[in-house]
Design a protein that fits this description.
- There is one protein chain.
- The chain is of the alpha/beta class.
- It folds into two domains: about 120 residues, Alpha-Beta Complex (Aspartate Aminotransferase, domain 1); about 220 residues, Aspartate Aminotransferase, domain 2 (3-Layer(aba) Sandwich), CATH 3.40.640.
- It is about 40% helix and about 15% strand.
- It has 14 helices and 13 strands.
- Strands 2-8-7-6-5-3-4 form a seven-stranded mixed sheet, sandwiched between helices. The protein has a four-stranded antiparallel sheet with strand order 9-10-13-12, covered by helices on one side.
- Helix 2 packs antiparallel against helix 11, helix 4 runs parallel beside helix 11 and helix 5 packs across helix 6.
- The chain is globular.
- The N and C termini lie far apart (about 55 Å).
């Protein structure tokens, strides 16, 4: 009988895997506000494209370079088609960046904390060392410390999760000018922010901007993202990506989504309006609410009740995110839902705090 001994590399055996938000079954009656999904359905044009999927499309391998999709992205964002790379979600592109650029202690990753914890996981898988530099007061980016680190890859989420803040473009420009390695700007939540760093891609060959269709386009279940960078930077990523890293259905539906900017803008504006209303209502209950440029809020409940509220709401089939980590263990991250969903959440919180 075989017994498990040393099947895995020591660094894999020792690491902690990334833990996504809890996932209840569909139609389980759960109000799911823990993974920053868009509460609205995808564009009707996406659903029409889905209805037209043919057997011939499925019989063949997808375009390995996703040319039609990249062309539509490039035209929409005013960048050349060969400056765009498609990925199986922006997480796929983050993986490609780490695999192609980082290694051990001599080619580390650097990023401000707290931020998207997948960065740490990808470094552990590689393995590559990490340089984690805490954000300053009021989420001030530690620019000089990041410059001093001179990492192989510097990762900046803007807007950032779980804080929801946006990094000033002037700070990002200083990094782009002063870093010898790659500056990756993760714009997963850009559709709710009104600010993008795409101009830095045009100005600096070491900058890549990463985006996803999971948030603003309401396509988290599709797994499609893209990156924008100059061809010299994309060349290395293209060498190591899976031959067919994005499936044909995702490319067809993603193209339809990108072409319907009016719909995306309409639903993201609904989310932004609901975000501001939810923020105001939570503040009336003595929550501290940080300003957000995303589709979620980072909040600190009164009287150190974060974990209590998380568990109690879960018992009522309302899921929010609790991070059992330093600097976050007294806070909650709440995805913004529809006005009706937010009202259900607020009502439940009021009852719990008044009990």
């Amino acid at each position: 009988m075989t017994t498990q001994t040393n099947w895995f590399r020591p660094d894999v055996a020792a690491m902690q895997g990334y833990e996504p938000g809890e996932w209840p079954p569909l139609n389980a009656g759960v109000l799911k506000l823990n993974s920053n999904e868009n509460p609205y359905p995808p564009s009707p044009k996406v659903m029409a494209a889905l209805a037209e999927i043919s057997g011939e499309l499925l019989r063949r391998y997808p375009d390995p370079r996703a040319q039609d999709f990249c062309q539509v992205v490039g035209k929409t964002l005013d960048v050349p088609t060969d400056w765009v790379i498609a990925g199986n979600g922006s997480d796929d592109l983050l993986t490609l960046l780490v695999r192609s650029c980082a290694a051990g202690h001599h080619r580390p990753l650097a990023y401000p904390t707290p931020t998207y914890v997948l960065y740490r996981t990808l470094a552990a898988i590689q393995p590559a060392s990490t340089i984690e530099i805490p954000y300053g007061p009021n989420w001030q980016l530690p620019v000089q410390k990041l410059l001093a680190a001179q990492a192989a890859v510097t990762l900046i989420a803007s807007p950032n999760s779980p804080s929801g803040h946006i990094v000033p473009l002037a700070d990002l420009r200083l990094l782009a000018q002063g870093l010898s390695g790659v500056l990756a700007i993760d714009e997963a939540y850009v559709d709710f922010a009104g600010q993008t760093a795409l101009d830095l891609v045009r100005a600096f060959p070491n900058v890549i901007v990463l985006r996803t269709l999971s948030k603003g386009y309401a396509l988290a279940g599709l797994r499609l993202g893209f990156g924008c960078a100059q061809p010299a930077l994309l060349k290395g990523l293209l060498k190591i990506k899976d031959s067919y890293n994005v499936d044909a259905i995702a490319l067809r539906l993603g193209t339809a989504a990108i072409l319907d900017q009016a719909y995306k803008d309409a639903i993201t504006q609904k989310v932004v309006s609901a975000r501001e209303q939810l923020s105001a209502e939570l503040q009336t209950m003595a929550f501290r609410v940080w300003p957000s440029h995303t589709n979620f809020l980072l909040v600190q409940p009164p009287h150190d009740t974060a974990q209590f509220l998380y568990k109690s709401l879960k018992a009522q089939q309302i899921m929010i995110r609790y991070f059992n980590e330093p600097a976050l263990d007294n806070k909650l991250r709440i995805t913004v839902g529809t006005s009706e969903q937010n009202a259900r959440l607020v009502s439940a919180i009021k009852q719990l705090l008044s009990a």
